[in-house]
Design goal:
- Helices cover 81% and strands 0% of the residues.
- It is built from twelve helices and no strands.
- It has helices spanning 2-8, 12-30, 34-46, 48-63, 67-71, 76-99, 102-122, 132-149, 153-160, 167-191, 197-220, 226-246.
- The protein is globular.
- The protein starts with a helix and ends with a helix.
Length: 247
């Protein structure tokens, strides 16, 4: 308890709250970018392991309200194998997180963000067939990245959005997938010893900020030009990644 109390007196919490607010705006309007923004900054402030626990805890709590409706619309034959592969790969990601130097993991997070920004900015999409082996492979990659960096979303999003399902079913698949894998990752982090009082407590403190600004993001930018906002978001993410890489 003293560890958490001493942290709350630091200026780092103010910066974390500001970053969380911006990430919430990104999440609310574009549907992406929240973990990509928070991961490198939180890794600098708290360390990579604490950052992963905080981000996934906040995301699971904020996304919980979306799950009940999505359960009836999700394509379970597609979601379950991918989520299963992700969960199976999470211990590997947790091992990477524990084995590698914290500075190296932080730089790796920043490099991954920069690479994903390039992919998202290019508009590239996978146009091939969604076979079971490929689905399992994407799930395994996502699970490894989730546990080691908290950024397991983009590979799955790029893969899911290439199918012929309607936007409604894609949204349901994505919500259910991240609900399943998020809960599993919290368990993996706890069993791996990463779920500390500091990580969980700080996540709970920042969750209302994340939820509130996610709501604002969905409301405030409803009539904004999406292409312009997405470009600004990508430039901002790239700036954070470059700063983290070369700080």
């Amino acid at each position: 308890m003293e560890e958490l109390g001493s942290f709350l007196a630091q200026d780092g919490l103010i910066l974390a709250a500001a970053v969380t607010a911006i990430a919430g705006l990104m999440r609310g309007y574009t549907g992406f970018g929240s973990s990509m923004l928070m991961a490198p900054v939180f890794a600098i402030l708290f360390g990579p392991a604490t950052a992963v626990v905080m981000i996934i805890t906040m995301d699971v709590i904020v996304s919980a309200q979306l799950v009940p409706r999505a359960l009836g619309e999700a394509r379970w034959r597609f979601v379950v194998p991918m989520a299963g592969a992700a969960v199976a790969a999470m211990p590997l990601g947790a091992w990477i997180l524990a084995a590698l130097d914290a500075g190296l993991v932080t730089k790796g997070m920043a490099g991954l963000v920069l690479a994903l920004v390039v992919v998202l900015a290019s508009g590239w999409r996978y146009d091939g067939r969604r076979s079971l082996p490929l689905t399992l492979g994407v799930g395994a990659l996502s699970g490894t990245l989730m546990a080691s960096t908290s950024m397991g979303g983009p590979p799955v999003l790029i893969y899911m959005l290439t199918g012929r399902e309607s936007a409604r079913f894609n949204r349901a698949n994505i919500i259910v997938y991240f609900a399943m894998t998020g809960l599993a990752l919290i368990c993996v982090m706890a069993l791996s010893g990463f779920m500390t009082l500091r990580a969980a407590g700080t996540a709970l403190i920042l969750t209302p900020v994340f939820a509130l600004f996610t709501y604002f993001g969905a409301r405030m930018f409803r009539h904004a030009e999406e292409k312009i906002y997405r470009r600004v978001a990508l430039v901002f993410l790239a700036g954070v990644a470059i700063y983290t890489l070369f700080r």
